[in-house]
Amino acid sequence: MTATTAVAEGVKAIDAYVPQSPPGAMAHAAYMRLENTTNRLRSVIGVEASGYGMAHLHSSETKNGVAMMSMVHQLDIAPGQSVSLEPGGLHIMLMGPAVPAKVGDTVDLQFLFADGETLTVATQVKTRQSGS
Q1: Domain presence at residue 71
Q2: Is beta strand 11-19 parallel, antiparallel or unpaired with respect to 82-85?
Q3: How confident is the model at residue 30 (pLDDT cuts 50, 70, 90)?
Q4: What is the DSSP letter of 96?
Q5: Residue 54: inside a domain, yes or no?
Q6: How would you classify residue 88: left for phi > 0, otherwise alpha for psi between -120 and 50, otherwise beta?
Q7: In total, how many domains does the chain have?
Q8: 60 lies in which domain range?
């Protein structure tokens, strides 16, 4: 297992990262791909993040030229499929950082599944790329 891949009970988190935010930012995002390697539906119903007051699954979209974001209460991952959490779409919103995150820091994310299982992902803070 590499630093950017975490696996638990048939669900893999691949290429997890948090883009470094500008100083003073009170909201950050986390991105990755979640892959379901089982033969059953896996449903993420929540996420928690070390060092943040709150964390939520969110979806970004543009309607009639207006960018909007909304909370996602359940993220279903079909058997053998993957879901990308990426800029401009599904992502994890991290709110209320306890301390500023620096490049190289790690944010531990814990995904909560509908069946009571959890997946902990060590997510590295990386230099922001354009568009992230």
Answers
A1: yes
A2: unpaired
A3: very high
A4: E
A5: yes
A6: left
A7: 1
A8: 5-126
Per the prediction, the chain carries an average pLDDT of: 89
Residue 131 lies in a domain: no
- Render 29-71 in DSSP notation, one character per residue: EEEEEEEE-SSS-EEEEEEEETTEEEEEEEEEEEETTEEEEEE
Q: How many helices (H) and strands (E) does the chain have?
A: 0, 11
pTM of the shown model: 0.87
SS3 label, residue 72: coil
88-132 pLDDT, tens digit per residue, is 999 999 999 998 889 999 999 999 999 889 999 999 999 977 444
Angstrom distances, CA of residue 17 to CA of 41, 42, 65, 80, 116: 25, 22, 28, 23, 25
CA atoms within 13 A on the CB side of 125: 19
Q: Residue 113's domain is classified under what CATH number?
A: 2.60.40.1890
Longest dimension (CA), the chain: 44
Residue 132 placed within a domain: no
For CA atoms 94, 99, 105, 111, the dihedral sign is: negative
Give the tens place of pLDDT for each residue, 42-65: 999 999 999 999 999 999 888 888
